[in-house]
Amino acid sequence: GGLPPTSGIRVNQDGYAPGLPKKATLISDSTIPLTWTLKNAAGTAVTTGQTRPRGADAPSGENVHEIDFSAFDVTGTGYTLTVGTETSFPFAISADGLKKLRYDSLAFFYNQRSGIPIDAKYVGAEYARPAGHVNVAPNQGDNNVPCRSDLNCGYTLDVRGGWYDAGDHGKYVVNGGIAAWELLDEYERATRLGDASALGDGKLAIPEQGNGVPDILDEARWEVDFLLSMQVPDGKPNAGMVHHKIHDAQWTALPTRPDQDSQPRRLSAPSTAATLNMAAVAAQAARLWRTIDAAYADKLLAAAEKAYAAAKAHPAMLADPNDGTGGGTYSDNTVTDEFYWAAAELFATTGKSAYRTDVTGSSLYRGVSFNTHGFDWGSTGALGDITLALVPTDLPAADITAIKTAITTTADSHLTQMAAMGYPAPYRTADGTYEWGSNGLVANNGVVLALAYDLTKQEKYRDGAFAAMDYLLGRNPANYSYVSGHGDQPVKNVHHRFWAHEVDAALPIAPPGALSGGPNSGLQDPTAARLLAGCAPQRCFVDDIEAYSVNEVAVNWNAALAWLANWTAEKAPS
Ligand code: 9MR
């Protein structure tokens, strides 16, 4: 560090993989090329070249040039780029940052666990904390959680465990589900390609290490078990449906350590979306555990099939868009995609004709869901397609080809858009705005680029996936690495009730590997609205703990980061 954060040269602060394209962005009004110089850690110029003027760039609102130093491939640390009086942050030419990020991004999930002490042995003293929400005062515990009083459901559920969603202490099925799915998909992909050793037992610092089960599965199971616990018991109204979420009755203040939260905890009503989300993830999990723990696989599949049947019987139980006190709403009034995703996972796992009929009869069949906006907790059709494209089934080959073509066509659209951007990021909304969690969408669209490479081995897709990582790690107009602990100017003050150093010096900053939600031109919190008025979309960011609409962390975003970090670590030449 030590260099001016206002530098007009933006780089991947963590490092560029040797042997792959290396590009940076210069802010400059110059209409003619300028000379750039790459210096090594000793300050000696090692190569030089000319910038490429790009003119006005809409997402950043800046006039920019591209610096392309791809030809330089000497591994090392402490490189800087200089143009005139501007100097970039120092960066590495090395895959080491990615190889570390592959695990840091997964460590996030252990840190977010509810219902278990976070042990210094695994995370270090500053991140250790007592178990949250296990009925030790002042917690009211997740042991016997009633429904919201207006629901009169007549039972309580033991919903201990799972991951806290984000900086708050809510646990939301649709978001926890997509996050668990993405970790499981990261593992399933590696297994399919014949080498899941990088994700195996002993790779993560978690209590289950050494139990003979791949650690990424152990971590995902912590959430999957929670998802199952949210299912309405037999004999109760709406049996088989899944409660949408469980969270505090009122929002708690910053900071609040999980074990110190004294709010009553409440179940919101079951929803069709949550029910199908659990069905999809449990069905996916059932095929992954089949050879590891058959009894668990049976339990998962039974829960998934029961949930799917319940959802078909209650196809329009929509989550209340006004149920936003004490927790997020995660409301979603389109469940066609959740139906498709759940049917796809159940079909891929069981091969049953009823699920096949629901898959092939869906309006989303054959890759309709892919677009340059990307998939997220409310748009899950693409998850079903990823499974159908890659898990062997008896679907017609032409239909599988259509899904794969949707993936590569979408990847091509990303590349076309990125080629026109000063700070290339695979993400685009119809009106050019950036939304809450844009970094999560960038990471997920990076996954689509990575899948296009897996399918075709065309280098342009690989380079696009790495460019997405460049953006997240500092080649962006905010000049931040959006991943804590990676890069010279990483986010430090993410919105979090325990990693709340900014408001209580005794508490830690985020541990390495947490992805900030990133630019959101909607400015949906008072701090962002006050500090960022008039910002260009990619600049609507501030590293302030109060600015939850631009700087929160969340399990879904980190799962996307983890998938992409694992992939780039695998593909980076050492
Ligand atoms: O990621 C969610 C985003 O898509 C929504 O626009 C936003 C507002 O409803 O909520 C985001 O999710 C937050 C959730 O509601 C509560 N926990 C923190 C989540 C991340 O900010």
Overview features:
five-stranded antiparallel sheet, four-stranded antiparallel sheet, 15 helices, alpha+beta, Glycosyltransferase, 16 strands, 574 residues, binds ligand 9MR, globular, disordered N terminus, 11% strand
Question: In words, what does this structure look like?
Answer:
The chain has 574 residues and is of the alpha+beta class. It has a domain at 101-395: Glycosyltransferase (Alpha/alpha barrel). It has helices at 96-111, 120-123, 173-192, 215-229, 272-289, 294-313, 336-350, 353-360, 381-390, 397-419, 438-456, 459-472, 526-531, 548-551, 555-571; strands spanning 9-10, 23-27, 35-39, 45-50, 52-57, 62-68, 76-83, 86-87, 91-93, 145-146, 156-157, 171-172, 242-243, 245-248, 265-267, 270-271. Strand 5 and strand 6 (62-68) form a beta hairpin. Helix 3 packs parallel to helix 5 (272-289) and helix 7 runs parallel beside helix 9. The chain is globular and about 75 Å long. Residues 1-5 have low confidence and may be disordered. Bound molecules: ligand 9MR. Ligand 9MR is lined by residues 165-166, 168, 170, 328-330, 436-437, 517, 548, 552, 554.
